[in-house]
Each structure stands twice: as C-alpha cells, then as structure tokens.
What does this fold into?
Amino acid sequence: MKVGTDGVLLGAATDCGNAEIILDIGTGTGLVALMLAQKSKAKVFATDINEDAFKLAKYNVEASPFSDRISVFHSSIQNFKSEKKFDLIVSNPPYFTTNVIAPDKNRALARHNLELTISDLVCNIARLLTENGRAVVIFPVEQSEAFEQFAIENGFSVKSKLIILPRAGMNPVRIITEISKSKTETQVKYIAIEKQERHDYTTEYKELTSDWYLKF
It folds into this structure.
C-alpha cells in the first residue's frame, strides 16, 4: 500500500488537542496513527479489517519510536470492542461507490465501501466517541456531503471543514470534515496543494505537511 496524499493531509490537519486516547478507523499502513502519535502524547488505537494491512501497520508501528503508545487491531470497526470511549476518532475511509470493483481484493477493500458504508462509519463514531470528543474524516466532495448530512441527522454538528484543491483555482477534490456532539458554528478553510505546475507546492501545503515530508 502506498502512502497517499489523503492520509498525509488527514494526519497533518487533525488537531489532537488534549486527546488522551485516539482511534484510527481503517488504518491501512498505519500512517495516520503514526502521525498522530508523533504530534501528541495520546494512546492510539488503530483498526483494519484487511489482514495484510493489519500486518503492515503492525510492522510499521513496531519499527517506530511510538510503538509503546500505538495498538493495532485486526478487526472491522463494526466488531471492534473497547472498554473506553475515544476523545478523538479519525478515518481515511474507503470511498469509491461505483460498480467497477478493483480486481485485487485487498485493493478493493481499501478503496471501495464494501465493508464500511458512510452510515456504518457515523454510527460507530457515535458508539465510540466520548460526549465531548471529536471525529475527523477525509472524503471526496460528493461522499463528504453525504457524510455531513448523515452525521447531522444523527446528532452531530460540523465543527470545521478544510476544503482541498489540487491546484489554485481548481475545483475541490477532498474535504476534511470535523464533527462533534457539541453545537458549534462551522469554520471553513481552503488549501491548494500545488500552484500551477506539477510538484510546485503552495506555501500553505508545505507549512501544513513539513513535519512529515523530508523534501520540505
């Protein structure tokens, strides 16, 4: 599995605040869990339904300086059990909903909502989040709108949205949405990844991700 821009953006943009216990749903390589461990002192739990992803995330965690604070579980979020609820929940979930499914099962699970629908995600966030907790997810625009609507219907408020443009002046491709159970006014920000040329990154993107990209 590759390290994708979506995961880097989610990990970089998520404010850990004073979170003491964090859950990463669908951890994949373990990237986001590792980034949040790096930027906080929290205990991080990471789950993935895919066995190969679970093994890879576990390997990456054990090779990191944060192995004593990250626990990786081979489990769907629907079957995941925890004695404690979480201050912060993050997810870079599967998002393709077309009928054209990737032929490789592992890739299909990672990229399509075969095992985790938007309603499943919201319901399990509600089940596992503390009363004052926050959840932060990244989706393409269309799925983000569906996630936001379903979250609101289930008692959440949208705390913030980071709208991501591939290049300055282009239409958005991703939205990082932060929800909570507290009533709040939505804060909206925009960020472009590149200027007009390939690999010519904007100052804002460099500032956001410089703690993780060696080239910045």
